């Protein structure tokens, strides 16, 4: 239950990403700076945390072992994840991006065969290739149905081109985030704590962000003070607080595909928090009754998803004992 609660708390802070990105886009800020500044600003925050825990040297030693691997999967997990999300903000409002982002629930589930799961038997731990949890996948589809109902009234007011440019980048991001996160968990194998891993991935993704920043400097110029400040807030709330909470939750269920999918499903709460934030801060109109039906379906889908995951885990435990 604790990983689920951590996942919901992470979803709350992740919602600041969509709200503030929409705010920056409305004020004329470029998606290039919205994305790159977040991770550049994350470094000092995370560095202070890791240094205070005296865990920097073990992290650097771990990164020296496979520097190329760290750069590759950190760039996927952070770069290919966040840059498309910010790009989509230029074509869709925050609530629509947050809603589309929930496809990551299914994306993360479909990635299961690429990883190995730890099963404990009488002869000790056994590594087997993960399988797609189809029952959990059905529950994820229920969550997505709720998301569609929440957004269907709003989507009528946008052109097909805007919807396409707002959806495709988010679909790419939905696969990149769980893929990069899980690959780095496998590489670290529990040798690093959550703060170390987030800092390590942030440092390893800096080449990606520096190249993007250089492109932004020559194409759109420097960011405004307002965009820099809002990017700082995103770095603190979403980049540090939310990422650490989410990675902590996934670390707690590392090696268990069903529980991992359940934790990732909690991110569907982002759309609820984003909707509330835009109602308060961006003067979004009150959702239609159909959207409120979607909210109830999302909550129901999350409950059913967690229930099915727990039942599957209990069944696996009985098989392991046998």
Observed structural traits:
322 residues, mainly alpha, 13 helices, disordered C terminus, EmrE, transmembrane, transmembrane helix, Multidrug resistance efflux transporter family protein
| Estimated share of beta-strand residues | under 5%
Instruction: Indicate the structural class.
Output: mainly alpha
Tell me how many strands there are.
2
Give the SSE order as H and E letters.
HHHHHHEEHHHHHHH
Protein name: Multidrug resistance efflux transporter family protein
InterPro entries: EmrE
Keywords: Membrane, Transmembrane, Transmembrane helix
Organism: Bacillus salipaludis
Helix and strand layout, with pairings?
Layout: H1 2-26, H2 31-52, H3 56-65, H4 67-88, H5 94-101, H6 104-110, E1 116-121, E2 124-129, H7 134-155, H8 160-188, H9 194-219, H10 225-252, H11 257-265, H12 269-281, H13 289-321
Antiparallel strand pairs: 1-2
Describe this structure in words.
- The protein has 322 residues and is mainly alpha-helical.
- It has one domain.
- The protein is built from 13 helices and 2 strands.
- The chain has helices spanning 2-26, 31-52, 56-65, 67-88, 94-101, 104-110, 134-155, 160-188, 194-219, 225-252, 257-265, 269-281, 289-321; strands at residues 116-121, 124-129.
- The chain has a two-stranded antiparallel ribbon with strand order 1-2.
- A hairpin with a 2-residue loop joins strand 1 (116-121) and strand 2 (124-129).
- Helix 1 packs across helix 11 (257-265) and helix 2 (31-52) runs antiparallel to helix 9 (194-219).
- The chain is globular, with a radius of gyration of 19 Å.
- It starts with a helix and ends with a helix.
């Amino acid at each position: 239950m604790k990983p689920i609660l951590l996942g919901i708390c992470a979803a709350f802070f992740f919602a600041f990403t969509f709200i503030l990105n929409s705010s920056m886009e409305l004020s004329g800020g470029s998606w290039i700076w919205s994305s790159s500044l977040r991770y550049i600003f994350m470094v000092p925050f995370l560095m202070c945390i890791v240094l205070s825990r005296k865990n920097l040297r073990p992290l650097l030693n771990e990164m020296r072992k496979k520097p190329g691997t760290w750069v590759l999967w950190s760039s996927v997990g952070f770069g290919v994840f966040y840059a498309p999300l910010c790009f989509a903000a230029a074509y869709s409002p925050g609530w629509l991006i947050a809603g589309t982002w929930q496809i990551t629930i299914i994306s993360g589930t479909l990635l299961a065969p690429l990883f190995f799961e730890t099963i404990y038997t009488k002869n000790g731990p056994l590594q087997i290739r993960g399988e797609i949890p189809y029952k959990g996948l059905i529950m994820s589809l229920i969550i997505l149905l709720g998301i569609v109902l929440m957004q269907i009234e709003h989507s009528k007011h946008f052109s097909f081109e805007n919807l396409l440019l707002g959806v495709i980048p988010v679909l790419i991001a939905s696969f990149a985030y769980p893929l990069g996160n899980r690959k780095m968990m496998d590489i670290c194998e529990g040798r690093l704590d959550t703060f170390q891993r987030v800092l390590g991935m942030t440092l390893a993704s800096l080449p990606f962000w520096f190249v993007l920043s250089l492109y932004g400097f020559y194409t759109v110029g420097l960011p405004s003070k307002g965009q820099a400040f809002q990017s700082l807030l995103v770095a603190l709330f979403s980049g540090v607080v939310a990422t650490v909470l989410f990675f902590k939750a996934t670390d707690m269920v590392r090696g268990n595909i069903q529980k991992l999918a359940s934790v990732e499903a909690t991110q569907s709460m982002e759309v609820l928090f984003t909707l509330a934030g835009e109602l308060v801060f961006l003067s979004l109109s009150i959702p239609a009754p159909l959207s409120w039906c979607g909210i109830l379906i999302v909550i129901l889908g999350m409950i059913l998803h967690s229930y099915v995951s727990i039942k599957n885990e209990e069944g696996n435990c009985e098989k392991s004992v046998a």
